[in-house]
Amino acid sequence: MSEEFIRLEKIKKEFTGVKALKGVDLKINCGEIHCLAGENGCGKSTLIKVISGAHEPTSGTIYINGEKVSHLNPIASIHKGIQVIYQDFAVFPNLSVAENIAMNNNLLNAKKKMNWKEAKQLAYKAMALVGAEIDPDVLVERLSISNKQMVAISRAIINDAKLLILDEPTTALTAREVDLLNKTLINLKEKGMAIVIVNHKLDEIFEIADRLTILRNGENVATGLIEEFDRKKFIHYMTGREIIDSVYTPNLEKSEILKINELTLDGYFKNVSFSLNKGDVLGITGLLGSGRSEIGDTLFGITPASSGEIILNNKPITIKSISDAVNQGIGYVPEDRLTQGLFLTRSISDNTVAASLKEYMIKGKLDLQKIEEVTNFWIKKIGCVASSSKAAIRTLSGGNAQKMVIAKWLNTNPQLLILNGPTVGVDVGSKSDIHEILHNLAKEGMGIIIISDDLNELYYNCNKIIIMSNGISSGLLNTADYSEDEISKKIKEAATEENNE
Ligand SMILES: Nc1ncnc2c1ncn2[C@@H]1O[C@H](COP(=O)(O)OP(=O)(O)O)[C@@H](O)[C@H]1O
Ligand SMILES: [Mg+2]
Question: Is the pLDDT of residue 234 over 70?
Fold first, then answer.
């Protein structure tokens, strides 16, 4: 149907000791949005760099417009109409929008001096094509991330781009900005441009892709029209594992870990009551501002309750501060792990013991060997992929970083662990690892509460769900009594009520 732009055949790329690509076939058509997915390290960036001419493949053939090309280099690739937008956009913060957009053009035409009028005209023209309305005179450093991206796309397309490749373009965007980007990309596609998006967020892929290719371990394990995939298939190809989509069912013991009576935080939630038994995984959901996160904050002493009762393992407790909560055996994986959950520049081991430091002091000194041992224990137990316990947290992928936040709290041996958005920004493989870890902890008797707006996560992983709306709890719903659609409907109804207030 549609015309082929580029075709890769049996592409192999080896770095010393690493086979990053093991004979990948890939075909990208004009006028399609092709998503490239796969877990961290599967070879996505390497493949893009082969297409952009940044890496010479070890073997294999590349055809562009049906013609075989050998020794593609970055300049040749640009001349063929291939443009890549990397995650940092490579925009120049201290230059204006117009200068940034005209940049490539000037380089290509080997112009030494910038013609201001021309640059501005070019900028307007490019921005009209992508549907952006940004002042061409403003410095790029003053723009939002989304607008910086629009500048990068404008710059990429002005030179008659035939193929636009975006490496994880949505990671730092809000939902509205993602919509805007999607509109822009669909518009470009309709003009005949081929678009490749590296993404592993399932929902976003299903929203925009025409075709999907999934890499695993340097191999193309699936390519097809998006209609040929569903969630289960997608995750299966990504991870190589069978994902069982069945509702979590605890081994019912019916002994109560936590009981909340009429808990209230003035202005946020009112008279929330529920109980949590051994084995239960409780999900709390609702819109942002519905009180869902505040319940977690209150149980952890960040915002102490105005009134109500908290009973932990049959003992009424008072939580007025975070240290009260920690002393009572409550752990909290916060919503924003990057700013609240972790010391990014510190090592994995520093982070692992951060919430339980006292236990590693002997005579005023830290027992470094014990810290090392316990860190390695958790890295293994929780399946964190890291080069060593000394690696800085910021070098880990999102999923592995999140596993270490969980490990940090597990190391305090909590009775109750509350997780707010535990798998936001986490790849699907780590996501199912994390869910499995939580199920095992629940089965071993730890109280687990997941606060989330990811319906799928809640439905399959929590045997009880509370929907918050305007600070009022729906009461406990027994997940198994409902279908996923029914829960989704209830959440939507709660949201509508909220908007009508
Ligand atoms: N320049 C390089 N030198 C050595 N190994 C590399 C290099 N670039 C990538 N790799 C390795 O190749 C594999 C694929 O990496 P990459 O293409 O970056 O994966 P992805 O983008 O899917 O996360 C990884 O094992 C990575 O460590
Ligand atoms: Mg990459």
Answer: yes
